[in-house]
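Lab meeting, item 3. Inverse folding demo.
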């Protein structure tokens, strides 16, 4: 935690090293909604505008009466510093709650990890990682994510097939590779974050996504998603919170239509 805090302080000092008395909040544009986004993080954000985060950005820009502009940068190490903290853009549409590098808005949805299987496969009925049916089956998972801890504790370590957490999605596609593996039979299942897998599975007639809502031990498998702004942008955060509150129904409609699995703050599924 100290390392994250130190990194933010250094970034903040660099931003303030310009004209005397300049404030980080002054970087916010008043002539456009400037969004920080990954150009190849489908189905969330995409340079071609088809991601569900693109649609939420369009909704916010419309409500603000401003044109929408993007600053594209691949997510991974350095993303927040190169985009938001360097003043190239003013909001990250999807940001996990609790990261010290940004100031979080109120959360606008909560989603959950789940298991992807073939609809006609022998694991189609699995809805928890402690199910004995998973043993001796090849299961894809992103290394370092919360479900990997559950799987190891359930005795599935030898069955796990890991993919990297931080990759440049312009050249690597871990989620797509795992879904292809399940579809073609080189994997028996994949355990993935709902907003990544849900929309892709929705469009696939052979696969299904089952939310993991029955896990009882830590770490939890459902998480709040906010928008991220610079730590000093208090007024901007309040404006976004107001936009979220007034447009929550429209935001939910975008998420449901995209196929994002939604849960409430207690991990109970919210159906369309």
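The presenter then showed the designed sequence:
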């Amino acid at each position: 935690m100290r390392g994250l805090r130190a990194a933010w302080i250094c970034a903040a000092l660099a931003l303030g090293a310009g004209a005397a008395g300049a404030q980080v909040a002054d970087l916010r544009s008043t002539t456009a909604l400037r969004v920080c986004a990954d150009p190849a993080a489908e189905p969330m954000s995409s340079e071609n505008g088809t991601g569900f985060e693109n649609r939420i950005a369009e909704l916010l820009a419309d409500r603000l009466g401003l044109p929408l502009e993007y600053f594209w940068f691949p997510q991974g190490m350095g993303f927040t510093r190169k985009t938001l903290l360097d003043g190239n853009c003013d909001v990250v549409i999807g940001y996990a709650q609790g990261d010290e590098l940004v100031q979080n808005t109120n959360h606008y949805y909560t989603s959950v990890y789940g298991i992807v299987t073939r609809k006609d496969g022998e694991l189609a009925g699995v809805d928890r990682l402690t199910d004995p049916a998973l043993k001796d089956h090849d299961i894809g998972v992103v290394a370092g994510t919360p479900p990997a801890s559950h799987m190891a504790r359930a005795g599935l370590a030898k069955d796990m097939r890991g993919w990297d957490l931080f990759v440049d999605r312009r050249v690597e596609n871990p989620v797509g590779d795992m879904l292809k593996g399940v579809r073609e039979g080189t994997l028996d299942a994949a355990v993935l974050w709902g907003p990544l897998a849900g929309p892709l599975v929705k469009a696939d007639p052979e696969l299904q996504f089952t939310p993991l809502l029955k896990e009882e031990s830590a770490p939890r498998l459902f998480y709040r998603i906010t928008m991220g702004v610079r730590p000093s942008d208090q007024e901007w955060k309040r404006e976004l919170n107001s936009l979220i509150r007034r447009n929550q129904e429209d935001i939910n409609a975008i998420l449901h239509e995209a196929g994002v699995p939604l849960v409430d703050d207690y991990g109970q599924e919210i159906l369309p």
